[in-house]
Amino acid sequence: xxFAGGSGSDVVARVIGEALSAQMGVPVLAExxxxxxxxxxxxxxxxxxxxxxxxxxxxxxxxxxxxLARELPFDPSRDFSAIVRISIIPLVVVTGAKSPYKxxxxxxxxxxxxxxxxxxxxxxxGSPSHLEVELxxxxxxxxxxxxxxxxxxxGLTDTIGGQVEFAMASLPLSQGQIQSGALRALAVGSLTRVxxxxxxxxxxxxxxxxxxEATVWYGLAGPAGTPTEVIGRLNTEIDKALASPSVRDxxxxxGGLISVxxxxxxxxxxxxxxxxxxxxxxxxxxxxx
Length: 289
Fold this sequence. Notes:
- By secondary structure, the protein is an alpha+beta fold.
- The protein folds into two domains: 8-88 and 215-284, D-Maltodextrin-Binding Protein, domain 2 (3-Layer(aba) Sandwich); 89-207, Periplasmic binding protein-like II (D-Maltodextrin-Binding Protein, domain 2), CATH 3.40.190.10.
- Helices cover 43% and strands 19% of the residues.
- Strand 3 (119-122), helix 5 (128-140) and strand 4 form a beta-alpha-beta unit.
- It is globular, with a radius of gyration of 19 Å.
């Protein structure tokens, strides 16, 4: 577990681990190795024997974090065997309910008229809430300016109050304030509209770019070279676990949408994201000294 206890990644992995333990008749132990944005735990798995007995609770930051460090502790596209993506959490562009922005096009239009005067809250440099907006900047040819917060909750509070124009927040974190009317949702990062916000367009719709997605994913990976038969067995068992309504409900309670991508397809996603974020991190000069 490379992230803090209670995080979405931690919860998803523990739920799956408990199910695997019961199904396979072997103990599945959760070892917390948090720190450095998930790098410490991921690096430990990258160096472990590729026998299927040491797995990584993988998440989106594993494709970004190594490029934020001066020396890369691992290569996310080379040092792991992708097993399965289990769930995703959509990100959503939100602005204060009293703001003048009714659509994403309104925000982009304001940024074109007043370069660098449209600000957005982030959970820190290199976080999904930062990098996904930087992708929008590139697509739209604008320069909306990031304001990093130590607490993203405070960033949302300032978005509601109008101190910053908008934020790219996780749907579970912002949905209550959207439904209460404190925040206005402009676009959601899932490939299809979400049932809880059916009137809110997807980013793909708002940007006119089919396939544009902004989500955080959770899954499992092993060290590079993990045997294909081991990966196949794990996927069979995970399929069985996810067929249980109680397992699915526990994942969905932390805001996860079950979204299974296996083996080679998941590996392709990790490689693609790794290449994309490496370029953006370099361009933004986010690498630490």
